[in-house]
Structures are given as structure tokens and as C-alpha cells.
Design brief:
Blueprint: H1 4-9, H2 11-41, E1 45-52, H3 58-69, E2 72-75, H4 76-86, H5 89-99, H6 106-120, E3 127-130, H7 136-149, E4 153-161, H8 164-172, E5 174-177, E6 185-187, E7 207-208, H9 215-238, E8 243-247, H10 253-263
Parallel strand pairs: 1-3, 1-4, 2-3, 4-8
Antiparallel strand pairs: 5-6, 5-7
Helix pairs in contact: 3-10, 4-5, 6-7, 8-9
Bound molecules: zinc ion (ZN).
Length: about 260
């Protein structure tokens, strides 16, 4: 007599079982591969901090990101002025320091950033920090803030690299519209000396050179910037945060914006 189990494993039953096992395995593999791909494609929320000397074009790049990519920009300078003019509790504290010409402590700036992020991260858009962090102390507070309160965000540091000479050339050639409402910015290269009357092409007001844009003043600002930015980049390197870079020397703002879009 033939053993019943043996007859079960023979012939078409065995083939059927093997096919069923292979099908089950393929389905399992497909499912896991699918869910893995989905997780990798999920948009990660990013907070960008732009580093770059005055005149490197940080502000222009940030504006392009806001206008064309829908990013949100936090300018700590604007936020300070806003709080002071509205007379908020924070504004009163800020005024105590600024009226004495003292530096505002990192903790106050950090709590102001915390408040802004709480209001502005609900729609989970990409954030650009402008003017913050400025010191290693502020950078440490920012890392804590993200870790403890906004863990859905990753901090990415972008440095816009440019030589001092190129900044001087950019800024020293800058002409500004004298009308406060207009504020258009030009470069002396856009006008032919002695032929063109440097008037604003938008509102026809005379163009002026800002006192702050003189070469000696610019070189001094760059020296101060080099010291503070060194402390800041050292902090990020020690914290294991990669500093991404774009070389902006000799590039127009749209070329810098294109390089940035490729990076993100
Ligand atoms: Zn103008």
C-alpha cells in the first residue's frame, strides 16, 4: 500500500505547492519593496540656513526661493523690528538691549525663533533662516530647538562662497534709488559714465551711493564676517553637520538659483 502522504507530495500537488510558495514569496517581496520606495520618496521637511558674506547674494536667493518655490523665510532682523514696533513683551525686552546698543542675548533670539517656527511650520513648508544662526551659541540653540520641538525637520546648511574682492566689486559698484518707496538697486556697470544720467529706470529719482557701500567699510564688514563665520562653520563641523556649498563668484542670481534647485 502506498503511504497517503507520499501520494500527496507526488505529481501535480507538488507542482501546485511550489507555484503557490513562489507566488506568496513574490507578493511579500513586492509589498516590502513598494513600501520601502514610498518611504524614501516621502518629502522630508527642511530648514535651510544660508551662510555667506554680506553681498554674497543670500537675500536674493532667499527671495527667489520664496517667490518661485513657495518657501517661507524667517528674517530675525524683521522679526525684531516687528516685535519692537508692536510693543509686544518680547519687543520690550529687545528694546532694552538695542537702546543701550548691547547685543541681544542668544536665548532671546532663540525663543523668538521658537515662537515663529511654532506658528509657521503647521503647513510643513520648507523654511529659510535669514540672519540666524549668527553665532555658535545660536547654532547650538537651533539644533536643540529642532531636536526637541520640530523633529520633522532636518537642518541643512548652505554656504555661498565668494572672494572678498568679488564682494567689494559687487558692493562698491552698487547704486541705489534715492526714493525710499522704490529702493531699486543698480550697478555702475549698467551706466556709461558721462553719457548716461544715472537716474532710476523705474521712477526717475536720482541714484545714490550708500555710505556703507564704500570699499573701506565693505572690507571692514568682511573682516568681521570672516571671524564670526569661522566660529559658526567650526561648530557645524564638530556637530557632524555637512556644510553644502555653492560657488557664487561671477554668477548671476538666476545661475545661483539654478544650482540651488539642482541641489535640493
Ligand atoms: Zn526708483
Amino acid at each position: 500500500m502506498v503511504c497517503p502522504c507520499r501520494s500527496f507530495w507526488s505529481g501535480s500537488n507538488l507542482i501546485f505547492l511550489v507555484i503557490a510558495l513562489i507566488t506568496a514569496f513574490l507578493a511579500y517581496w513586492q509589498f516590502h519593496r513598494g513600501s520601502g520606495a514610498q518611504a524614501a520618496a516621502a518629502p522630508s521637511k527642511v530648514i535651510f540656513a544660508f551662510l555667506g558674506a554680506p553681498g554674497s547674494g543670500k537675500g536674493t536667493l532667499a527671495k527667489l526661493c520664496v517667490d518661485q518655490l513657495g518657501f517661507k523665510q524667517l528674517s530675525t532682523g524683521d522679526l525684531c523690528r516687528d516685535n519692537i514696533s508692536k510693543g509686544t513683551e518680547l519687543g520690550k525686552k529687545l528694546q532694552e538691549y538695542t537702546s543701550k546698543g548691547a547685543l541681544v542675548p542668544d536665548e532671546i533670539i532663540s525663543s523668538m525663533v521658537h515662537e515663529w517656527l511654532s506658528e509657521n511650520t503647521r503647513d510643513e513648508k520648507t523654511i529659510i533662516l535669514d540672519g540666524f544662526p549668527r553665532t555658535a551659541g545660536q547654532a547650538a540653540l537651533l539644533l536643540d530647538l529642532i531636536k526637541n520641538h520640530f523633529p520633522q525637520y532636518t537642518l541643512r546648511i548652505l554656504a555661498l562662497n565668494i572672494s572678498d574682492d568679488a564682494v567689494v566689486e559687487r558692493i562698491a559698484g552698487r547704486l541705489m534709488c534715492s526714493s525710499k518707496e522704490c529702493g531699486a538697486i543698480y550697478n555702475t556697470k549698467q551706466f556709461v559714465e558721462g553719457i548716461d544720467n544715472p537716474l532710476c529706470k523705474r521712477c526717475s529719482s536720482p541714484l545714490i551711493k550708500r555710505e556703507d557701500d564704500r570699499e573701506e567699510v565693505v572690507r571692514e564688514r568682511l573682516k568681521v564676517y570672516a571671524q564670526t563665520s569661522k566660529a559658526l562653520t567650526d561648530f557645524f563641523k564638530n556637530a557632524g553637520i555637512k556644510i553644502e556649498e555653492i560657488n557664487v563668484e561671477g554668477k548671476e542670481s538666476d545661475q545661483v538659483f539654478d544650482a540651488f534647485k539642482k541641489m535640493i
